[in-house]
Amino acid sequence: MKRFIIEDRVFELFPHLEIGVLSFKNVDNSGKGKTYMLETVCKRLCERLSSDDNKTVEYIKEYSLAMKKFKTKKGAKASIDAMASRIGKGHILGSINPLVDIYNVICLKNLITCGGEDMNKIEGDMVLCFAKGDEEFIPLGEEENKPPREDELIYRDDKGAIVRGWLWREADRTKITENTKNALLYMELIDENRKDEFKKIVKELEELVLQELGGQCKSTIIDKNIPVCEIGWI
User: By the 8 A CB rule, do 222 and 4 touch?
Assistant: First the structure.
């Protein structure tokens, strides 16, 4: 079985880190995306950003500050920060495919970061760790290898980096497509005050995917005490 692993050194930077890990099997990711859901959540977030909702700003800022704790490319933003910046200017996120749209909706609704990969394209274990600097990384939609910096926080498997800058940029190799049947989704929490809420958000994501796309799901939350879990299906 493949595993999802957080290396011990990561907890030196983020002692309260929790990751919700969801393994999906036999989802139907074909057909139209979830445009209406995206439009609704983007408009709602735009309203929240333009109001005096301090929690909204604080939740986004927390991920932004987390990016400053390790080496990465200058100007790199956490995904939730980058999306919120665009939405705050009135932009609506474009549809990618049903599964990606769904996890983006949950991210934007709850201001929690989330990533997703095609499970069948992950080679070996999925590991959150610090880069050696020689890992192969071809960014989403590109062809040129752009490896991470030494000590940059990344997700990797046996073949190379899957996400650079932890919450920043995904690889093209493992992207979720309309043909994806088995998928890995993972949500990151660094605010210890949201732990109870986080359990509900992970469950919300699981239930929405199963409701919209069918299939099966195994989910768990890993942390400093239990930093590893199995992913995929036998």
Answer: yes
